[in-house]
Design brief:
Blueprint lengths: L35 H33 L3 H25 L6 H6 L1 H6 L1 H12 L6 H22 L10
Length: 166
């Protein structure tokens, strides 16, 4: 994998860089073929269903807090914590579809993103309504890698014997 673009270089004898696969889509995002639309529909439905089930689980946890009678303040703190973490996770996931995250920052936010998993699921749902999640980023990186490859290969083409000496 190339460090700059995230695209995979091809083995010797192949023609140019290969697109990086996206989870659930592989490389179908390049030409929107081989069931790309069906995969987008499945990802949208799956992420929405997972978000709905997650909200039901959170509802059961909320009812458990009410049954435990731990007090209104702690219950309020839990609700606010899940809401804020979900909002932050949504924004972080949404931004991840258009640019690569810093690995150190990603590691430091791992716990917060785990708590705000509903936000991440909703971000996947909304993004899959328009494109494969992360497609825009991968397409930009892939096209840049193709341009760099074309630039390198056209610079090397031609017979050096035919060049004039200055």
């Amino acid at each position: 994998m190339s460090d700059d673009t995230g695209t995979q270089e091809t083995p010797a004898g192949s023609t140019g860089p290969r697109p990086e696969p996206i989870r659930f889509f592989g490389t179908t995002w390049v030409d929107h073929d081989n069931g790309y639309t069906a995969r987008r529909i499945a990802v949208a439905a799956g992420s929405l269903a997972a978000a709905a089930v997650s909200c039901l689980v959170l509802r059961l946890a909320y009812q458990g807090l009410q049954i435990a009678a731990i007090g209104g303040f702690v219950t309020l703190l839990m609700v606010v914590m899940f809401a804020i973490c979900s909002a932050i996770a949504f924004r972080h996931t949404w931004e991840g579809f258009t640019r690569r995250h810093d690995p150190d920052r990603q590691a430091s936010l791992r716990g917060l993103l785990a708590v705000g998993f509903v936000g991440s699921l909703l971000a996947h749902f909304f993004r899959s309504l328009t494109e494969a999640p992360g497609e825009k980023l991968h397409r930009e990186e892939y096209e840049e890698a193709r341009k760099q490859y074309e630039k390198r290969t056209t610079r090397r083409s031609g017979n050096p014997k035919n060049r004039r000496r200055a």
